[in-house]
Amino acid sequence: MTPSFPISRRTFAGAAACGAAALAFPALHAQGKLEKTKIALAVGGKAAFYYLPLTITEQLGYFKAEGLEVEISDFAGGARALQAVVGGSADVVSGAYEHTINLQSKNQMFQAFVLQGRAPQIAFGVSTKNMPNYKSVADLRGKKIGVSAPGSSTNMMANLVLSRAGLKASDVSFIGVGTSAGALAALRSGQIDAMSNTDPVMTMLEQKGDVKIISDTRTLKGTMDVFGGPMPAACLYAPMDFIQKNPNTCQALANAIVHGLKWLQTAGPGDIIKTVPENYLLGDRGLYLASFNKVRDAIALDGILPEEGAKTALRALASFDPSIKADKIDLSKTYTNEFARRAKDKFKA
Question: In the CATH hierarchy, which fold is given to the domain comprising 122-216?
């Protein structure tokens, strides 16, 4: 359901700006008939802040404003959401950018076309209950590590941390725990010894003393420390042939997301609470807001994916995954900023 708000000065200014944008960019406004108005979109862990721009865009009716009917299917993690598109039950994924690199290494061409997150927003922590004497990453050998879903970006982050300490993925057991209440329960009940996951889950565990954070990409600074450069995160991506056959539809999707990003630039914590579904708060409004403040600067501003960020992602993946040969990947085919640039112009994001 789309919440109804009284018209505020910001809403009015936003509407005026949109009107001005329509006059200034008549060709954009008349971007052509949508090839497809019904879109099946797959996401892995929609309640996470990682996908907040998607939720905001949906809840405020921005997809509908672009003439789209978007049906969102939520899976346990990004790898599962990707399987839905590969299997043909979804058109587009809202997921981690690095999947496009992974897929290209397997000769499957997917392309990201609008960015939602400019930092991975993933934290890796060890259980204070199961590992009270933790000293270094080497202590994780033989342990159970919770991730949103095996093969997801949370798994990738854990692999990176392990590889830097000389451990291989096969030295631990990865267990899919989702990104919400199930993840909290798995860690607190002692089913797992450590966890790589997103907010609000990780902040909730951290503030209650359930985890000790050992690697953190919830801020731009933390991301630079871990990856050595900007690291693009959530984006909308799809098979390249889908994008080529449905350019107007992809433009409408990018417009809607960038509209949501523009709203998020000035939204206060109270606006967020009013807009997201109640169950996303995981029963603790205060901690949810504390998490939002922590990841706020990780949200993309205008939907454009930085070239340097694509290089960082490739470097990170190639560092621990021997199947990814950096010299064989054509990064220019893993993303396009064509749609996001038009959307940025339209909404002055």
Answer: D-Maltodextrin-Binding Protein; domain 2 (3.40.190)
Q: How many CB atoms lie within 10 A of CB 69?
A: 11
What is the DSSP secondary-structure string of 14-29?
Answer: HHHHHHHHHHH-HHHH
Instruction: Give, in order, the Cα–Cα distances in Å from 169 to each of 117, 122, 151, 228.
Output: 26, 18, 11, 21
Tens-digit pLDDT profile for residues 167-210:
999 999 999 999 999 999 999 999 999 999 999 999 999 999 99
**Average pLDDT over every residue of 227-247:** 97
**CATH homologous superfamily for 9-119+231-347?**
Periplasmic binding protein-like II (3.40.190.10)
pTM of the model: 0.89
Mean pLDDT of the chain: 91
CB-count burial class (<10 Å; 0-12, 13-18, 19+) for 293: exposed
Q: What's the confidence (pLDDT) of residue 30?
A: 52
Distance CA(152)–CA(76), nearest Å, equals 10
